[in-house]
Amino acid sequence: MFDTSLFDRALRKRIEERSRERAECLRSVIAALKRIRNEYDVREAYVTGSLVVENRWNEASDVDVAVGGCSGSILDVMKVLEDASGRVVDVIDLDTHPYPGTVRDRGLTVYG
Q1: Nearest CA among 36, 111, 41 for reference residue 80
Q2: How far, in Å, CA of 26 to CA of 50, rounded?
Q3: Which of 9-18, 35-44, 88-97 has the lowest mean pLDDT?
Q4: Is the separation of the CB atoms in 25 and 85 below 8 Å?
Q5: CA–CA gap between residue 76 and residue 35 (Å, rounded)
């Protein structure tokens, strides 16, 4: 039998680090969404994807958000969120998405 305690500790440490990174990114994204609400007339905002699903977040993960009410400012919203998170951000425009209800149901509501 092999002693795997060193590997087990390293794995636990990496999982804890990833969880902290995910929580920090989520806090940054939520704060940025709240900060830009009035500036870009964002009516509703949700965080979706791996950022809101435990154990799916990793070093290569992007940030997925959905917003409504600001179709003309999607690229501006994306830039603010990318600057805040340090990650690539995909922004779903709920005003034009074919199934906005599904996005709302599956996402973490920030406001709306």
Answers
A1: 36
A2: 10
A3: 9-18
A4: yes
A5: 13
| pTM metric for this prediction | 0.91
Size (the chain), residues: 112
Distance CA 77, CA 90 (A): 10
E-strand ranges in the chain read 44-48, 63-68, 89-93, 108-111
Rounded CA gap, 74 and 101, in Å? 19
| CB contact at 8 A, 95 and 68 | yes
Cβ-Cβ contacts under 8 Å for 57 (sequence gap 6 or more): 18, 19, 21, 22, 25, 50, 51
Of the chain, the percentage scoring pLDDT greater than 70 comes to 100
Nearest Cα neighbor of 92 from 112, 63, 54 is 63
Q: 61-112, pLDDT tens digit by residue?
A: 999 999 999 999 999 999 999 999 999 999 999 999 999 999 999 999 999 9
Q: How far is CA 87 from the centre of its chain?
A: 9
